[in-house]
Amino acid sequence: MNYRVYPSSSSPLPVGLNPNEGSPGWLSKGDNAWQLTATYFVSLQSVPGLVILYGSMVKKKWAVNSAFMALYAFAAALLCWPVNSLSNAFLLGQMDDGHKLPKADYVFYEFAFAAITVILLAGSLLGRMNFYAWMLFVPLWLTFSYTVGAFTIWGNGLFQYKIIDYAGGYVIHLSSGVAGFTAAYWVGPRHSHDRQHFPPNNIIQILGGAGFLWLGWTGFNGGSPLSAGLITSLAVINTHICTATSLLVWLALDMAVYRKSSVIGAVQGMITGLVCITPGAGLVDPWAAALMGVMSGSIPWYTMMVLHRKIAFFQSVDDTLGVFHTHAVAGFLGGLLSGLFAKSGLLRLMYCSNIYGPDLSHCKGQFHRGLRQQMGYQLLGAVFITAWNAVVTSIICLVISRIVNLRMDEEALEVGDDAVHGEEAYALWGDGERMPKTRCFRIPLICSRLVSTPV
């Protein structure tokens, strides 16, 4: 099932094989090489990117469980991807919309997007969700929630060619933020001590995971045109401009308010910048990308650092890594700003269509039409994604709760990884071995013998 529908080529290319190159005549080797590279970048964001990031941002006793939730979701996403999409991966024919790529490229690229969406969602649930419940949740949520949202906005659904969502500000980030927050409500909070005291176990590795995420976004936004062209180049440079700006703005606010230059705060600002630029990366000018970075570094900072602590609604739900703020808020903000700043010429170049409303910064006297048409669709898309994910995620959680407990029992919450997986992230003695209980009594005896033994 192809979710992102692009216009058909006006002049179909010959399909026969080139005997000198061993490839079909319709295949663009440059586009194909870039698409495979972009898919590789997107995959690296999840494995090892988010595996490292999640395993490092949590308390030491949850490092293994958090990293493994991400790894499992990546593997499960490929196998539970809709059967008709997966079957196309084994067809070597050209994409139906005229792009000079094999169907297999597109199917795998979209799989990488589906996988990272549910992994981002997991950030709200770390440190208490029953792993068996998570194993059921991933395929159910991808099938009944993510698939519908992607098809509705990117495919032949209700909002085809109406909502500007270049690479998934709504489909990926708003959906993962809303679904994560909803699931966190149904799963329940972490252990009370964990919720009050939850220090990261390795800040250096957090920076490593964040690096995979940032650089991997080159393929996340750069691969969406499905070709190596002008839109691709613009999307890549805009992605990094917005992200760097957002990081610096978040860091400046932390230093101004808390007198500390927080590393984790800088990573959060990096993420909100990546998320905010996603729905308009290849459709706005670089100056607009910088302005979007200012907004994404300040507005989610305010909702996370100020509103979250004041509003009882946020306090009542334990969103472990603040995914609602970094993805739902930033994704919604990016969708609105994309409708505001996207250039009509770039929209036509990307979609070969004039049906989008004029962007407000280039409307040339049609301000009210642009405001009514395009911004109305942007708001409508956000409402649909929010409502759909909240309802369907709730249903899925209620169904799973009839099969297994959504939350670990109190004993497992006390112990952590060792109780859940029988493994721990860091060995304190030997090569992954545990210190026998009697060893603490034997050490003084050994030491006394060493002291009494003549040299």
Structural summary, described in words:
- The protein is an all-alpha fold.
- Helices cover 66% and strands 1% of the residues.
- It contains 18 helices and two strands.
- The protein has a two-stranded antiparallel ribbon with strand order 1-2.
- A hairpin with a 4-residue loop joins strand 1 (17-18) and strand 2 (23-24).
- Helix 5 packs antiparallel against helix 15 and helix 9 (230-258) packs parallel to helix 11 (286-310).
- The chain is globular, with a radius of gyration of 24 Å.
- The model is unreliable at 7-17 and 437-455 (pLDDT under 50).
| Structural class based on helices, strands and sheet pairing | mainly alpha
The CATH C-level class name: Mainly Alpha
The overall pLDDT, averaged over residues, is: 84
Strands ordered across the widest β-sheet: 1-2
Instruction: Provide the β-strand percentage band.
Output: under 5%
Distance between the termini: 79 Å
The CATH architecture can be given as: Orthogonal Bundle
Question: How many β strands by DSSP?
Answer: 2
Bin the helical content.
Answer: 55-70%
Q: Which fold name corresponds to the CATH topology?
A: Ammonium transporter fold
CATH homologous superfamily - what is it? Answer: Ammonium transporter AmtB like domains
Membrane topology: Multi-pass membrane protein
Family: Belongs to the ammonia transporter channel (TC 1.A.11.2) family.
GO molecular function: ammonium channel activity
Subcellular location: Membrane
